[in-house]
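User: Could you check the structure of this?
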Amino acid sequence: MTDQLQVNRATFDEVMLPNYAPQNMVPVRGDGSHVWDQDGREYIDFAGGIAVNCLGHCHPALVQALQEQGQKLWHVSNVWTNEPALRLATKLVDATFADKVFFCNSGAEANEAALKLARRYAVDVYSEEKNQIISFKQSFHGRTFFTVTAGGQEIYSDGFGPKPGAIDHAVYNDLASLEALISDKTCAVILEPMQGEGGVMPATPEFMQGVRALCDKHNALMVLDEVQTGFGRTGYLYMYELYGVEPDIVSTAKSLGGGFPIGAILTKNHIAEHLKFGTHGTTYGGNPLACAVAEAAFDIINTTEVLAGIKKREAMFRQKLEQINDKYQVFSEIRGEGLLLGAVMNQAHEGRAKEFIAASIEQGFMCLVAGPNVVRFAPSLIVEEQDIEEGFKRFDKAVARVVAGD
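Assistant: Sure, the predicted structure tokens are below.
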């Protein structure tokens, strides 16, 4: 065995494209809600790999699933199917509105497939003129050119030349804005039940139900991007359950693999049949390793005990954040659902969310931003109570540091 190459944060600047700006510390090991860096320093992780590590780091059931499958079969491509993919698809169908599943590797790929399917369905059933896709401002649907154009943040889509056409953006939680854009030429409306990157902004029940009604009126598909909200994140297996609406297509990823890259779309038979043989594909999608890990995660998360526990943990998070805010007066509100929560900066601290992240790292605490005004928390769905206590002690110190620097 060759000697392992020594690398550090400076190596990133030497060999990696500069489209990221990672923190100075380099994580090397994780266990549950704890992470250690190259210097052996320990952190409490409430970032969760951006809502990915649904069972924390190195959960024994996921490690076992990966090790067992790793000794059986890694990859065969979609010229063949495989048992883990078939088992996982069956469990997803049995637990949701869906009849059919398509596996891919990420949330962006899932949304790409969902939008392609919506366009193909409209062309086959109606006409080529029925091609408008409506999304929402401040939304985020991935980084492929199609999905980043569907996303409602031009900062991510500008500067790459001509964009895919027939994509329009309404105002989130504003039904009149959607009504002004939608017509019989609309093939799909895509939205997040809760905007993640757009600031941890949940849809109101009236809005979600109104979108469903407008889609029905104009024969448009309702596509729910549950990449960040799905697979238990909000205390429901998928967040559409909260609203009492049935979507036509759901995209899912992030928590689906518990840290292993996997994505999927879920849909009904009459829609699925329009992705005929050869119309779409992926080399790695549905590979045995990813599906084995995701199946193990599913078996843990889709239980009454874990889903109910998420709501209990949400209450603890909200209490801790309110206590911190009572001391320092930095947040205007705490919003979100389940364990996807956002602490919104008040006017006095507007635009300073990143300062709280930097101060948190110094205190051994990991969290996220969701735009310049929101500190975002997306921890393990089974984070232990003592880790919640310790994590918010550290966050309290970080907030104190930022406020003291005013």
